[in-house]
Write a structure and sequence with these properties.
The chain is mainly beta and 460 residues long. The chain has one domain: Methylamine Dehydrogenase, Chain H (7 Propeller), CATH 2.130.10. It has two helices and 33 strands.
């Protein structure tokens, strides 16, 4: 009897323990499990104006770490042609035309009244420069017909001459080419063909003072196979020593190519390197934002492949690193960026995006205009084509300026487009970014810049 009682107690204890183990096992309740999928970003088509997708998926939980490199979306908003541009149109567009006799004509197109006039030059125009950073002045070069040779002229939006001066930094040295550095200074370059080098200088058009710009930065690369666009003429004449040195507007920062396909951002005063990055073939077209706070450049993610693997990279003036700004190659099979321009406030970049197979550098190639938001990385494709590769062959009129040009207020962009109906003709189009409408204003003329139709703060 005692044995039977002991066995019964032992059995009850065993069952109780087994029962306790079963109850403590986790429950598998399907309806309590929420699976959140975060798919890879894809191209989003949004024909409307509102309901733009967020760059950060809302499905990520607060406890989940959000990667800083999540690609922003690509939105498509198609432009339509219109007979006029809604809203207020301001400023003066500068256009120029080169005829078969190599005579250049500069046109000033007043956007306020939609009227064009021809600028009266001081002599035969030998080259057309660009518009100053503050949009108040235009620079061009002319043949004086005297022993002085070519001279430079600064004019305002009405064509009034503000300055007329000799284009020499030294009595024996003529400038070979020039660009605006600030509103009252030019970056001028003398080519020393004997030593195959470029000698850049900063020239103040008000005081007529000049100073050499340093080019012998540590481990600087001087190869002739690198053309960043700033010194194309020097590269053409095999004078790459001293070329491809990109200073910010205030001459306090410099970006230059180092040996080993490295791009360096350096403090001009201290010589300290603030950031660097290795990019295939050093990338292309580095340019500072108008306020000098950031620099962007283009680099191919696969330099051994055919053109079509481009991305934007950005660096702040104080570093500490170059960052990848776009993720085009993760969304598009082909992505070639041929030209671009910062908006006046530095918040956006207008650029040509070619997604077709083939060589995007072929003469007269057209690409799609797109807008990049610098802060978010979001890209808006506008479904409108424009000339993204220069035209230099007859019978088509010369067209070498393919960079999109922003209006002073950042609301509109001007560019050229092949006319689909007329042979050997291209049109100048003005695109309003808010209404997504485009208007043709001229044909077979090259856009140079967009000026403010008001007197400058002070005559240079």
């Amino acid at each position: 009897m005692m044995k039977q009682t002991t066995m019964i107690i032992t059995t009850l204890v065993f069952l109780f323990l087994v029962s306790g183990c079963v109850e403590s096992a986790p429950k598998t309740i399907t309806e309590d499990i929420v699976v959140t999928h975060t798919p890879l970003p894809t191209i989003e088509i949004d024909p409307g104006i509102h309901n733009e997708p967020s760059a950060t998926p809302e499905t990520l939980s607060q406890s989940e770490p959000v990667a800083t490199s999540i690609p922003a979306p690509i939105i498509e908003r198609c432009v339509v042609s219109n007979q006029n541009l809604p809203g207020v149109n301001q400023g003066v567009l500068v256009l120029y035309q080169l005829d078969t006799n190599l005579d250049r004509t500069i046109f000033l197109y007043d956007m306020t009244i939609s009227r064009e006039k021809i600028l009266s030059p001081l002599g035969w125009i030998s080259s057309v420069g660009s518009v100053s950073p503050d949009r108040h002045y235009l620079l061009y070069e002319y043949d004086s017909g005297t022993d002085d040779g070519n001279r430079l002229v600064v004019v305002d939006y009405a064509g009034t001459v503000i300055r007329d001066f000799d284009n020499r930094v030294l009595p024996e040295s003529w400038w070979d080419y020039y660009q605006w550095q600030t509103n009252d200074t030019l970056r001028v370059v003398v080519l020393d063909l004997g030593k195959r080098r470029a000698l850049p200088r900063l020239y103040n058009i008000t005081t007529e003072d000049y100073m050499p710009l340093k080019t012998d930065w540590p481990y600087v690369y001087k190869g002739e196979n690198l053309d960043w666009g700033l010194d194309r003429e020097a590269i053409r004449f095999s004078s790459s020593d001293g070329a491809n040195i990109v200073y910010d507007p205030a001459i306090t920062r410099v970006v230059y190519p180092k040996r080993g396909q490295t791009v360096s951002l350096t403090d001009v005063e201290t010589g300290q390197e603030l950031a660097s990055i290795e990019l295939p073939l050093w990338g292309r077209l580095p340019r500072w934002s108008p306020d000098g706070q950031n620099l962007v450049l283009i680099a191919s993610m696969d330099p051994k492949a055919a053109p079509g693997h481009d991305e934007f990279f950005i660096v702040s003036r104080d570093g500490p690193e170059f960052k990848r700004l776009t993720h085009l190659t993760e969304k598009l099979e082909t992505a070639h960026i041929s030209e671009y321009a910062w908006s006046p406030d530095g918040s956006q970049i207008a650029f040509w995006l070619n997604t077709e197979a083939g060589d995007p550098t072929l003469e007269g190639t057209q690409s799609e205009l797109a807008i990049l938001d610098v802060a978010s990385g979001e890209i808006t494709k506008l479904c409108i084509q424009g000339i993204s590769a220069p035209i230099r062959s007859d019978p088509m009129p010369l067209m070498t300026r393919t960079q999109p040009i922003w209006s002073p207020d950042g609301r509109q962009v001007v560019f050229t487009q092949l006319n689909p109906s007329l042979a050997n003709t291209y049109d100048v189009l003005v695109l309003d970014l808010e209404t997504k409408t485009a208007l043709k204003i001229a044909s077979n003329k090259q856009p140079v810049g967009w000026m403010i139709n008001a007197p400058g703060p002070s005559a240079p």
